[in-house]
Amino acid sequence: MNELSSNQRKILSRMAQTVKPVVQIGQNGLTDAVIKKIDQSLACHELIKIKFISFKDEKEILSQKLCEACSASLVRIIGNTAIVYRPSDDPPSGQEG
């Protein structure tokens, strides 16, 4: 995934203000099931929040790992919540070649 510019991060951070966390990282950490859930959530929503209940000290490292696993970009970490973005593979409806 391409690195986001500071302007893109700012826009995505604003958009994420109303988004609720869809995944929580608990005592089991970053399991295959959690990565699969994050991947599915990104496919549906493009922009998601991930709440760290446990592993708060490793949230930066774990966020980078899950972004690599899901081909996503880390927008920002605010407190114990990571904002993750991956653009949709589908072109917007109504735009045909």
Written account of the structure:
The protein has helices spanning 6-15, 32-45, 59-70; strands at residues 21-25, 47-52, 73-78, 81-85. With 97 residues, the chain is an alpha+beta fold. A 4-stranded mixed beta sheet has the order 1-2-4-3, with helices on both faces. A hairpin with a 2-residue loop joins strand 3 and strand 4. It is globular, with a radius of gyration of 13 Å.
Topology:
Layout: H1 6-15, E1 21-25, H2 32-45, E2 47-52, H3 59-70, E3 73-78, E4 81-85
Parallel strand pairs: 1-2
Antiparallel strand pairs: 2-4, 3-4
Overview features:
97 residues; four-stranded mixed β-sheet; single chain
In short:
The chain is of the alpha+beta class and 97 residues long.
Order of helices and strands: HEHEHEE
Mean pLDDT: 90
Q: Distance between the terminal alpha carbons, to the nearest Å?
A: 25 Å
Q: What would you report as the Rg, rounded to the nearest angstrom?
A: 13 Å
Task: Tell me the number of strands.
Answer: 4
Helix content: 25-40%
Query: Segments where pLDDT lies below 50 for 5+ residues?
Result: none
Strand order of the largest sheet: 1-2-4-3
Number of helices: 3
Shape: globular
Main sheet characteristics:
4 strands, mixed
Derived structural class: alpha+beta
Percent of residues in beta strands = 15-25%
